[in-house]
């Protein structure tokens, strides 16, 4: 165990945002073989197509030999084969990149400090996980088509070059004009896509409100109309208008670019007598230009998709940079810590605001000890800091200053994940999982608990899973209790667990379950507002405005007095 308190509790330094290009290279590097194969196959396919066009062009102006036809068939096969390999390769690549992005963002969220996740709020995280990654997936799905189109256009340019150098220069000039137009327009549509993406974060919040606030919104018509009109409708209309304008700019420029091809073809036809170029070259040009129009349009249509993917990638990159620090100890060697005597906090100070405002909440605890094998209640008014204290005790928040001590020794950063494994519990805003990862005592033990907490009639447990979590509020919390107990950790934490229970279960919790846990050698930390049961604790810590204002010990309290040996189920 480390002897340096500041090792644990220093807030991590903010990492600089990694450069976008670096991120792209990092993402693509593992797939370089697929990228190389798909690009080479696509390029070969495009060149073969251009060569085939040259044979078709030759055949139009002169007699066709059998050998030329066989060559044409071979080139068509090569072109199709190349396109097939490029298509499959790029599709697989796109999907693997999306899978990797999803894994990467999820892994960073899983490793981020809890305070960071709480600060970011779920709508922002969900917008990245769902919206932004989907935008990249969209690009991935179309990527094969784009690379094949690019290969065909490049192949056509090579063929045009072989036909007539001055005319290919003229064609390149048109490409440059088209490119410059697109480039100038791109900043306009990018700005609109970017603004629309900002609004997507707000839209996620509204989605959350209409799902999580379903009851309230049905009871309150004014609020429902407000969410519908000023929230959803307004935001979706603004997003649609921004995206619509961006696409309108794109289509205007796209039309001009395609018009340039017709201008070119028209100019060649009109100026044919004056150009002094052979007929074969002229027909070749026109065939190639008309043939390449499709792939050119496809490439142009890729620009907004690329722009949106670029914005999405920037968002993902910004999120991953924010979460980059992570909690290295989460992946460190598994230290199995033992809890023998007591947990303690010393010189602890924690707040949520970066500025030291006078009225900002601050938790200040000079010293606190939680003894092993005791039931400790943390009590106090709303907002007095009970849950914050719990999160620090469980190693979920890194306090601004001060130390968390396990059996008198500081818990180092490297040990923090191991330290957290000493606890299980039910938070006030708990999440209920449907499965049990481990089940010491087997199904029989789980079923006994379901019977005891009157849940056996509404669900059962088979093959490591509970049949449902669609239960009443009190039933869900009882199921969460079973999860916590079956994890068999030395310390159990309950944050206002009994608040949702009927009087019988409340009594069962305070008068039977807690004493049984205590008798089984467990340490229990419970946040409670049930003052009529405060006597069920060995120690009651009273909190007010972030400070401990009193510690009440009940030395005469004995669980054995309330639970007879025959009634003890937990041990
Ligand atoms: N994630 C957070 N970000 C900013 N402030 C927070 C956060 N969590 C809690 N607070 C603030 O910290 C203070 C203490 O909150 P805490 O949840 O610890 O109180 P509590 O004693 O558990 O209250 P209750 O009895 O209502 O559950 C409150 O004033 C609250 O506004």
CATH superfamily (homologous) name of the largest domain: ABC transporter type 1, transmembrane domain
Helix percent band: 55-70%
Task: State the secondary-structure class.
Answer: alpha/beta
CATH topology of the largest domain: ABC transporter transmembrane region fold
How many individual β-strands? 12
CATH architecture of the largest domain: Up-down Bundle
The overall average pLDDT, rounded, is: 83
Low-confidence stretches: 1-18, 558-569
Number of domains: 2
Task: Tell me the strand order in the biggest sheet.
Answer: 6-9-10-3-11-12
Name the overall outline: elongated
What is the CATH class name of the largest domain? Answer: Mainly Alpha
Could you tell me how far the N terminus lies from the C terminus, measured between alpha carbons in angstroms?
A: 30 Å
Largest sheet features: 6 strands, mixed
The number of helices is: 16
Strand content: 5-15%
Using only CA atoms, what is the Rg?
Answer: 34 Å
Bound molecules: adenosine-5'-triphosphate
N-to-C SSE string, H for helix and E for strand: HHHHHHHHHHEEEHEEHEHEEHEHEEEH
Membrane topology: Multi-pass membrane protein
Domain ABC transmembrane type-1: 36-308
Subcellular location: Cell membrane
Protein name: Putative ATP-binding cassette transporter
Structure description:
- The model is unreliable at 1-18 and 558-569 (pLDDT under 50).
- This protein folds into 2 domains: 19-322, Up-down Bundle (ABC transporter transmembrane region fold); 342-567, 3-Layer(aba) Sandwich (Rossmann fold), CATH 3.40.50.300.
- It is of the alpha/beta class.
- It contains 16 helices and 12 strands.
- The two termini are 30 Å apart.
- The site of adenosine-5'-triphosphate (ATP) has 11 residues, from helix 11.
């Amino acid at each position: 165990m480390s002897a340096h308190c500041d090792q644990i509790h220093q807030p991590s330094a903010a990492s600089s945002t990694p450069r976008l290009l670096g991120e792209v290279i990092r993402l693509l590097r593992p797939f370089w073989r697929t990228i190389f194969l798909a690009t080479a196959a696509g390029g070969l396919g495009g060149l073969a197509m251009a060569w085939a066009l040259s044979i078709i062009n030759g055949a139009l102006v002169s007699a066709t030999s059998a050998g030329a036809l066989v060559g044409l068939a071979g080139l068509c096969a090569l072109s199709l084969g190349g396109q097939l390999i490029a298509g499959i390769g790029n599709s697989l690549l796109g999907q693997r990149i999306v899978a990797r992005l999803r894994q990467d963002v999820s892994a960073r969220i899983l490793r981020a400090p809890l305070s960071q996740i709480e600060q970011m709020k779920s709508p922002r995280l969900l917008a990245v996980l769902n919206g932004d990654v989907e935008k990249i997936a969209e690009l991935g799905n179309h990527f094969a088509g784009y690379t094949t189109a690019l290969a065909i256009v490049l192949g056509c340019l090579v063929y045009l070059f072989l036909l007539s150098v001055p005319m290919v220069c003229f064609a390149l000039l048109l490409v440059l004009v088209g490119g410059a137009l697109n480039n100038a327009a791109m900043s306009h549509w990018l700005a609109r896509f970017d603004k629309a993406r900002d609004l997507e974060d707000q839209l996620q919040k509204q989605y959350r409100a209409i799902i999580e606030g379903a009851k309230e919104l049905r009871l309150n018509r004014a609020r429902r109309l407000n969410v519908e009109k000023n929230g959803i409708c307004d935001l979706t209309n603004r997003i649609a208008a921004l995206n619509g304008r961006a696409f309108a700019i794109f289509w205007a420029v796209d039309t001009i670019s395609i018009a340039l091809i017709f201008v070119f073809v028209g100019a060649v036809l009109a100026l044919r007598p004056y150009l002094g170029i052979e007929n074969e070259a002229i027909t070749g040009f026109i065939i190639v230009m008309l043939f390449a129009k499709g792939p050119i349009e496809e490439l142009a249509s890729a620009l907004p998709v690329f722009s949106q993917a670029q914005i999405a990638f920037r968002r993902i990159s910004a999120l991953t940079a924010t979460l980059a620090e992570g909690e290295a100890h989460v992946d460190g060697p598994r230290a199995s810590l033992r809890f023998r005597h007591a947990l303690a906090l010393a010189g602890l100070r924690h707040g949520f605001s970066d500025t030291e405002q006078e009225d900002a909440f601050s938790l200040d605890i000079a010293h606190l000890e939680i003894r092993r094998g005791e039931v400790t209640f943390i009590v106090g008014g709303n907002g007095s800091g009970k849950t914050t204290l719990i999160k620090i005790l469980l190693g979920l928040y890194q306090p601004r200053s001060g130390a968390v001590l396990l059996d008198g020794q500081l818990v180092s950063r490297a040990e923090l994940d191991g330290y957290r494994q000493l606890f299980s519990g039910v938070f006030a805003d708990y999440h209920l999982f449907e499965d049990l990862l481990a089940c010491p005592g087997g199904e029989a033990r789980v079923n006994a608990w379901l019977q005891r907490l009157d849940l056996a009639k509404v669900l059962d447990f088979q093959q490591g899973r509970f049949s449902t979590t669609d239960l009443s509020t009190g039933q869900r919390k009882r199921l969460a209790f079973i999860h916590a107990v079956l994890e068999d950790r030395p310390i159990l934490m309950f944050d206002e667990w009994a608040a949702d229970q009927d009087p019988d279960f409340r009594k069962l919790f305070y008068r039977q379950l807690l004493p049984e846990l205590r008798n089984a050698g467990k340490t229990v930390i419970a946040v409670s507002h049930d003052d009529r049961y405060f006597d069920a604790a060995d120690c009651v810590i009273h909190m007010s405005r972030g400070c401990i204002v009193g510690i009440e010990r009940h030395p005469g309290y004995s669980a054995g007095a309330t639970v007879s040996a025959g009634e003890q189920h937990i041990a």
